[in-house]
Design a protein that fits this description.
The chain is of the alpha+beta class. It has helices spanning 10-22, 29-40, 64-72, 79-85, 95-98, 101-106, 108-114, 146-185, 205-213, 230-246, 299-307, 311-321, 326-333, 337-351, 356-370; strands at residues 45-52, 55-61, 92-94, 123-126, 133-137, 190-195, 200-203, 217-219, 225-227, 253-257, 266-272, 284-290. It starts with 9 loop residues before the first helix and ends in a 21-residue tail after the last helix.
Length: 391
Amino acid sequence: MDMGETGISLARFSELIAEINHATGQPGAWTRALRAITDSLGGHHGCLVTAQGGRRYMIASTTEGLRDSYNEHYGRIDPFAAVLESALTAMVLTGSELIPPDGGRRHPFYTGWAAPHELGDGVFARLATPGSWIAVYPRADRNLDRLLAERLLRLFLPHLDHALGIAARLADAVIDRDLALSVLDRHRHGLALVSGCGRVDYANPAALAILGAGDGLRLGALARLESNDPAVSSRLRRLLAAAAQTGSSNAAARLLIPRDRDRLPLTVSILPLCPGSQESPRRAALMVIVDPEREEPGGRETLRELYGLTRAESQVAFEVLRGSGLASVAEELYISVNTARTHLRQVFAKTGTCRQAELVRLLSCVLSGAGQFADGRRAGAGQNANVQLPG
């Protein structure tokens, strides 16, 4: 099509396409893109509607009030929607062609939404993207140049479809990322994504708590991992560099991180990510940090839920799991040895075990799985998920 037939220059058209493309990665930029399109058609307001999660949703309009009121209520009663969703792709229609003017003006959609915003008889075009269309409205007392609107909209539609497709894929990627982070954030052990130079790019709440305490591991300059022991720090850096740079499973490593005050050392496992992706510009290793002195969160509650143990029975079972003898269990819980023995027999019966060693093996296996993630009642307790690390 000759650009002279559209009434806009090639340079201006290029600017409009750039605005549309910019909106793919910046949701707020849709408003600017829509305003530019609306102005090029001589319109008053414009709207872009699409389907998200099976629901009709206005992703942008030239004013927030227009968009918000549509999404909150009027989108559900939009009389143009059903007609547009069955219209031919790229067909440009006016509102009066979609809905008879007399009937349309009595509809609550018109009286409650269109009229208060001074929207006249607009032009509509269905996009190839399912459930999507663009609408441009003149002021209530004016009309758009139908021929000009049709010519311009047909030029814009392929670019709008392309931008909507990219935006939808980016939105899905963000959702997938957030879901993955929510899993990591709820893990009871410390999890960190670390670059080859030892910089922590992400740490879940459990890892942040360990690093924040500064006992054994801490964050140094530029968010790089450091140990209290310089020799351990040096070895840790070498192992992280090997895991991040090679991506080979052979680079997996484990080491103990000593702590002060006679505390048990931290256990660190370093696992390469994305084996074989040597071309990736962002190589990292997963570091799992286990504090052996940290009590299993919700362990007693888990045993009660799974095996129907009473509170006293779950306390006895948990103390046995920690390696305490029956006399120590009785002393710890302020009960007699006979009472502790009675509780233990009930635990054996309810768990289908016969000996303490068998009980410990069973409960260790069960809790190592059931207790890896905090449930909704305990998730992120005392910590904020997705905390930004220092730069």
